[in-house]
Amino acid sequence: MKGIKITVTVLILSAILGYLFAFIGGLCRLSKNPILRYFTVFYVEVFRGTSLIVQLFWFYYAIPMLFGFDLGSNLIAGVLAIALNYGAYMTEVVRGSILSVDKGQTEASIALNMTSYQRMRFVIFPQAVRMMLPEFGNYLIQMLKATSLVSLIGMHDILYHGDLLRSSDLSMAPTVYILVLIFYFIIALPLIWLSRKAEKISKKGVASP
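The chain above was modelled as a monomer; its predicted structure follows.
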């Protein structure tokens, strides 16, 4: 129970930042500016192509040692690593969802003399968001699982306290880790419900080819 607060805090902050990075990255991937596009591609490929554990260690150990830049706390390092990692994956979800909206929608909005901003804001983006919801729900559950890694940088989450109990009595290891699994599953239950709800919402009001 002592670790729930840290686990939930890391999850909420990582989700907020991760979705923010995803929307920014997805829109930058569709930008006409080649610098923005190439920079976003670099970000996506680096964070998707490397291990989250390695990224976590880089933010907490390597960056302060190599560049003398301290992020301030293990909470910031953990949240940034998880958010940037899953933000990279969700960037492609955002990009793909926007491109999946029926081209006829764009043509109709052009016929109505809408500006590019108005087309995105009022026609394309609302439909794309509905298509993003199921994947966003799945990645939220994945981020919950990833929060268990922050114990590696000294954060006192559920797994950290489980390890403390296990180290005090090795014979309790099976019981302790079963309890850890149960705690994560209980936290995941409302997220699973939200994910299923998002799937139902995504089927409504989207024009597709």
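The helical segments are 4-29, 34-49, 52-67, 74-100, 103-111, 116-146, 158-168, 173-202.
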